[in-house]
Amino acid sequence: MADDRLSLVFSALADPTRRDIVARLAAGDATVNELAEPYDVTVQAVSKHIKVLEDAGLVSRSRDAQRRPCHLEAEVFDLMTKWIERYRREAEERFRRLDVLLEQMGAQPATGTPTKEAAS
Question: Between vectors from CA 20 to CA 8 and to CA 69, what angle results, nearest 5°?
Answer without folding.
Answer: 80
